[in-house]
User: What shape does this take?
Amino acid sequence: MTIHLPPILRRQTVARIKYLFSLRSFWFHRAMINSRHNAIVVGLGVMGSATVCHLAQRGWRVLGLERLTPGHALGSSHGDSRVIREMYFENPLYVPLVQRAHELWRELEERTGTSLMIINGGIMIGPPHGLVVTGTLRSAAEHNLPHEILDPAETRARFPAFSLADGLVAVLDPRAGFLDPEACNRAYLDVARGAGAEIRFNEPALEWMPDGYGVRARAPDTDSSSQARSESCRPNSW
Ligand SMILES: Cc1cc2nc3c(=O)[nH]c(=O)nc-3n(C[C@H](O)[C@H](O)[C@H](O)COP(=O)(O)OP(=O)(O)OC[C@H]3O[C@@H](n4cnc5c(N)ncnc54)[C@H](O)[C@@H]3O)c2cc1C
Assistant: This one.
């Protein structure tokens, strides 16, 4: 049986058949089949670990690459404490983000049975018309947050470690506190592994490039040259 096609369709059909048998099509489909990951996250400080964890929990197949060892001290996520403040003086826009972060830290604590965040209150100190105090009060007003304004005598009575100069005030944020950054990092990675993420330490990403399908990240071990539909870079400046 002969099928008669109009010239334009004939040209398109021939082009499609040529493509199906071409080298380009072979590599493209091989990449689709071989790709084990939907996302590659470069850098496993607390931001990278959180990213790996949340993607894995959403069912993504994630690869996390960290060039150094777990808990290393050459980034920003090591040490004993990081402050968390609800009354963000920098801008009230941050307040809902911090409130969501509170919920997520508590969820992570429950999931891992680890204490990560201590809420013990915090004080923001400055001149009454300065950036810190006015910004803190603006966040408190816009989001209806509980707070107290303390003069130097009240501050000394309640927080004896602080001796304020005359003319300064302190704004008490009762929902400020601190996090244990190394424990947070470990907790995220534990949950990420449990959700199926592949985590590799001592494995720097040497380069990444778009490859027509998504991205490919190259690590020193050639086996770990990996493809994914997206990549998240969370490295630092070291
Ligand atoms: C002294 C200090 C005090 C701070 N205090 C506070 C605070 O009180 N409150 C607060 O909220 N924030 C605070 N911060 C900020 C907060 O700690 C950082 O924003 C946060 O830790 C950043 O995490 P990160 O994952 O982005 O970066 P990092 O922790 O630096 O992680 C980046 C990772 O990328 C890895 N990497 C780099 N290149 C590659 C590569 N090619 N391949 C694979 N891996 C790579 C690095 O080894 C590193 O582990 C503070 C920061 C510092 C330094």
Summary: The chain has seven helices and 13 strands. The pocket of flavin-adenine dinucleotide is lined by residues 42-48, 65-68, 75-77, 82-83, 204-205, 234-236 (CB under 6 Å). The domain at 81-179 is CATH 3.30.9.10 (D-Amino Acid Oxidase; Chain A, domain 2).
